[in-house]
Every structure is written in structure tokens, then in C-alpha cells.
Batch of 2 targets.
Target 1
Amino acid sequence: YINSMYVESLPNRNSPPAILLRESWREDGKTRKRALANLSTLSPSVIEGLKVLLKGGAAISSPEVAFVIERSLPHGHVAAVLGMTRTLGAERWFASAPVAMKPLLLAMLVARVIEPGSNLAARRALHQNTAASSLGRVLDWLYQAQPHLEQNLATDPEFSAKSADIIGLYLNPPENAIVLSVDEKPGMQALARTTGVVQLSDGKCVSAMKSAYKRNGTLNLFAALEIAAGAVYGKTAQTKKKPDFLAFLDDVLLGVPGSPEAEHHVILDNYCTHKKCGEWLSAHPGVFFHYTPTSANWLNQVEIWFGIFSRKVMRGASFNSAAQLAEAIASFIKAYNQHSKPFVWKKRQVRGSQMANKLSNLCV
């Protein structure tokens, strides 16, 4: 059905007109409407801006036009990071430290977030007399307590063992083995919508799309990334149940080049479809499942490819049918594999909320 949102002004006897945000759609050959919000209390400029946005335009030409810095704290960035550490309960991480050390530990954590750097750079930045100071004793405590702190931060008690297992497959896989990173992207909508270019009031042109769209069904995409070559094997399905998942693995095993006797190590997250596959594994003795730690599917390299796929295929696209979406997916995978290469991960600096499960990056 076709879905559309718009702003409507309704007469109101002896009172100003009511301004409503409405939604309309076609269902069973009839046009249906409903009110989503009453906008009557908003200023006319805000309502006009909302109308522009609903038509695919931009309400303001630049952020500087709408936002003005009225007051800036001299150490606001420090206060922001300190507030974030308290929200995360950082004091709890240092509960076993001597009382005199706790302020220094918190200060070191805040400083490392504000000015992140490698462990080597942090060591070189320390003065040679630091080891004999109170800060040196803090560093000694952090070094000894690091395993305990990381264990407290991890949501999976086997985080270290599971992550080491997967990273080992990436860096040093078993000889002649094939390593596959597998996951699914569920519920992709085939949306038909009008896209184009809109000229703003300042003369600039931006790409835009109308808020009205038509839903033409959904698809689920199963994908397997071959770690060594970077090639991707994909399959679309209407459902994402365990039989769909296992049928996809059967297709992948037939399509991956290599010796039929070669071991296949499959990296998976903890989704229920991937669990309790003992009967299938018994029929495929050369296949081994490796699960990422809880809440750590970022260790699964196929997630990187899904990000590329979303940007290249789904973002701002329009599809008149689920079959057209499936064709676009197949075409993208075919073109991608012509120039595929393995991913190379690089260590990232820790910023803000990315601190979780990365205490080792905060300790010098």
C-alpha cells in the first residue's frame, strides 16, 4: 500500500485552525487517514519547515543558521567525559583500589578518552621520574588488576576465550581449512519511492526522496564471507528459519572452491537459528561452528560487508518489487566478487561510549 504523511489545516469555529500531522494510505481499494499529532502549538516557521521536510527538502540551509552557542564552559569537554564515566559506573571498576588511588585512576581514564593514543605513545609521554611517584604506583595497580577489570566489563564470562578463538581463525587458520563468516540481514523492505534532486532556497542542490512510499514486500539475505579471498556468497529467502539457514550453508559448501575434504570453520553470532544444529553438523563432520561472544557480533567480519552492501544497494534506492530487490542484490554480489579482497582490520582509538569491553586500550 502507499503511505504518505502531510500537514493539514482544519477550520475551527471561533478559534484558530487546528494544524494536524496526518497519515494516509490505500488499503482494500479505499483511502484511509488518521491523525498522528496536533501541531497547533508550534510556531508557523516550524510548521513550514516540517512541510518542506515531508516533501523531501531541507528545512535549514546549514546548522549555523539554526544553532547559536550562547555559553561555553572552559572545561566542558572534561565535564562531559567525567559525566559519561559516572553514568557507566567507572567508580565501580576501581572498587578494589586504595582510596587514595581512585581519583587518579578516574583522571587517567578521562584523559585517555579526551586524548586517545596507543599504549606505546602513552609510555613515551611519561616522565622518567613517573615510576617513583604516586602515578607510577597507580600504573602498577592497573597492570595487575587489568584481567579482573576486563572480566567485570565483559558481558560474556567467556569473552576472552571466544574472541581469541575467532581472531585466531582470522590470523592463523588451520592448514588447508576454509574460514567463513556467516550472518543474515533480515526484513529488507522493497520500497518504491520518488527520488531526485531538490534545489534549496540558497541555490544549492541536494539529493532527496519523498516521504510517500509503497511497500512491495520484504526479503531476507543470507551471506557468507570467505575470509581468505574476501569473496561473498549470498542467497535471498522469504523466511529466515533454521531450514533456510541450513539450506544456505549447503549451497555455500557446494560453491566454495577447494578440496571436498577440507575443513570449513563457520563464524556465527548467537542468534537462535544458528544454535542446536547438532544433527546437521553430524551429517557434515568437516564443518565446525564458532560463536562470537555475547553482544560482540562486531567480531564477525561479514558485518563489515553488510555495511558496504547497505550503503551501496539499499540507501536511497527504490524497488518496484521484491524480485527487483533480489536482482539488485545478486548483481551487487557478482560485481563485488570481481574485485573482492580480504578485509584488513586496524586498531581504532577509543572514543566516548566505545569504551565498553576495551579497558586494555585505556591502561598504559
Target 2
Amino acid sequence: DGVIKRHKEVTITDLPGIYSLSPYSNEEIVTRNFIINEKPDGIINIVDATNIERNLLLTMQLIELDIPMVIALNMMDEVEVSGGSIDINGLEARLGVPVVPISASKGQGLQELVGHAINVAKYEEHPGRLDFCDKNIKNEEAIHRCIHSICHLIQDHAEALHIPLRFAGTKLAEGDKLVEEALNLDQNEKDTILHIIEEMNHERCEELSDLLPEAMLIEGDASNENLLREEGISNMEAFISLTNYDEENIMLSLYANKVSDAKLITKINKISFEDVVSEIPIGSIISPKNLTAEYIIRYVRSMQNSLGSNVEAVYRMVHNKVEALEFYIKEESKVTNVCLADLKLKDNLLVCAIVRNGKRITPSGQDMIMKGDSVIVVTTKIGLNDIQEIMKV
């Protein structure tokens, strides 16, 4: 906790940086519990202006808590430098909360931000919109009805426990067990909610069938062994477990490994589990946090890079000991127009592919890197920022 300069009557609490209020990590649980239990007078939601979409999930969840909030749109200076612009008034109108453009690194807009935050808290200016479902859009009808039906059912429980109704309803629709326990629902209410969710899933399956006419969609409980057998799990070429629960994903992949030769992909939310699960046969492991981290690494390296190419993508493998990088060659340099065999490449580094004019080349020693190419490199040398760094000094 701390105080704001020239506003000693205001206490500000810096919570862990997160991208969701779903209880998958200690940071998310700490932040969520603080907001729900401590009931702050207001929230400053700091959003990266260069990548608004990534922050929208958390923003929507915070709005559903119905707590006075102001959005700090940070890094606006970088947006402007890149020639971009953001319709601040339009964003405020769509979200129903004040939006203040700032640049924290340059100290721009901070006084205006503090002023807005104090005002929304003092005058209890709650978000002007909590419901972002549009029942007039076909693929949102089912979700709209599901959340509203659940909210109607749990209203008394939520009000008695001072849990924001819309937030609780949405979380129950997502299968959030912590919210279900907090509301102290009886078995009949739990069964009714389950039925509402099943009805939503049925409608969603029908909608997806229309959107994906060539795909086979299965409506049912993926943890049901009989269902998996009936749908031919033993003959599947790939099996991907993507539920919200790590334990369920692990068990599903273990079962698929037992009864099939399918390629396995398993979603693990808790990164701390990776060292344990890497020793069991559940195939490739994907982590939302690692995917986010990879995106951040790619972004930071691209921003740092002032040479002739940018890191287009970064992927970590083998317990983060190996990186696969994609470089885009913007201009000629000492690595271009030279046979790969003549380049003195660093040890433990391999140029795996060159993409030129949309066609992939599996390079030999006589192939060259040229301006406009995308080049895939795999290496144990963690931290390469530019294509020229593939060479020995």
C-alpha cells in the first residue's frame, strides 16, 4: 500500500499484474480475492495501448464486478510514434468507463489519471454497462440466455454475500468452482445451473455446426470414458485436452495415450506443474502463461532491435532450454547473399527453413538468405535478438 503524492488521504494498493480473474495462479487468486473481499472504492486498470485486445478479457471481468473504474491506456506515445491512433471517446462509450491515455515511462497523463480515479471513487461512478452480450447476434444468443438465467437463479445468494451478480453468473457459466462454493448453493440449484449450461452448449454446438460444416462436433462430457470410446478415440490421429482444469487435462491425455497412438497436446495452466508432468506421457504441453510470455519476449526483442531484421516469433522448447525463432529479413547484411556453408554459424544453432515468396526451402549449404526472406532458426543460445547474431563473433 502507499499514498498518492498530493493526495495523502488516498491509499493505493498495487496488485499483481494479471490477464484474467480466473483462479489459475496465485497472482490471479490474490488479486481476485482482494477486489471481492476488500471491496476497494475504485480500480485503475492499466491497459497496454499497443495491444488492447490482450487486456480486454480482464477489463470485461473487472467491469462485471461493478466497481468504479478508470482505464489507464498506457504506452500511447508508442502508438503515436508508429503512426497509429485510438478513438478514446469511442472506447469510453463502448466500455462505459473513463479512459485516460498515458505514458508511464514519460510521466504523461498521470495527473489526469489520478484525478479521474479519485472522482469515480468519490462519487461512486459505477460502470455504465455490465452486459456485453448482444442477443441480436446469432452466435451470442445462447451465451446471453445462459448467463441471464443463472443470474436470476442466484440473485438472492449473491446479494446476501455481496458478490457482484453479473460476475458470479458469468463465472458459474465458466464452471468456476470457487464461486460456486462461495455462493453456498444447494444441490437442486447446482443441478439447475448444470442444465442451463448444457442447454447453452447444445445451442452452441448447433451454431458451430453451421459455421463449420466440414467439421465433426461432439456434444458431451469429454471425461466420459464411454463417450470417448463411442466416438473412436482409439483411432484418432490427434487428441487435444483444453478444459479449464489441469488435473482433468492430464487424466484425459493419459487415457488417450493408453488407448490410442494419437498425437497428444495438453493444456497446463499452472506452470509450476510442468517439471512434474513433463515426466509422464501426455505429449506436448501448452501453457497460456508461456504463450503470453513468448508474445511479450517477441515484442520486447522486436522493439529493442535496431538492425536489419525483426524477431517475428519465439517458441521455447525442451524445458525452455531451446528456442525456435523466426526472423524477417528487412534489408541486406553480412548474412545475406552468402552460401550458408560459408557463414561461420554459432555452435548448437541450425537454420531449419527459409520462406521465400510463400514457398518453404529446406536449406542446404549452397542456399542463401536474401532480403525479404523469413528464416527459422533453432538454437540453445537463448536470447538472440537479430539474424546477424547467428554468426560467431
